[in-house]
Amino acid sequence: MEKISASLILEILGRPKENVSAALQTVMEKLSQEKGVKILNKTLHEPMPVEKSDLFTSFAEVDVELDSIMAYLVVIFGHMPSNIQITEPEKITFNNIELNEIGNAIVQRLHHYDAVAKNVVVERNMYAKKLREVAPYLFKKPDSQNPVAKTEKKPKKNKKSKKS
Fold first, then answer.
1. Per-residue pLDDT tens over the stretch 45-92
2. Which CATH number, 3.40.50.170, 1.10.287.3510, 3.30.70.60, 3.30.110.40, labels domain 4-93?
3. What is the C-alpha to C-alpha distance for residues 1 and 76, in angstroms, rounded to an integer?
4. Which of 15, 58, 114, 148: CA 20 to 30 A from 94?
5. If you compute the radius of gyration of the chain from its CA atoms, what whole number of angstroms results?
């Protein structure tokens, strides 16, 4: 298979400003060390403050040359660019073995994400249960959200009991 040329945008959000710059540099270093990935050109932008927040955002525009479609998938799943565009070749063909590798790589990653998500849900439920045991008052709704709790019944007037 011929090499793939692509353009990526990698973004970082965080604080303080210096950490955002350092994190973007680290991402670029890791990308450059990926097998089958060659950085042809890169432009790193200075962190800018995010409106109505104490966070900063920065991004890098990167042109890469990839040895294979698997290197392309490594970039997508490993670095999660906010945008990726293949510029060359215009047409890419696969044989069934290559397509199977691609499919299996995607399925493997999806299974990993699914396992992580399920573990997070189990842990959240476990911590919520424990918190309900040790601090049940945290889970009581305020009276304004629970109108049934403080509703007083008014005595009914009996019309037949009028004295004349």
1. 999 999 999 999 999 999 999 999 899 999 999 999 999 999 999 998
2. 3.30.70.60
3. 19
4. 114
5. 29
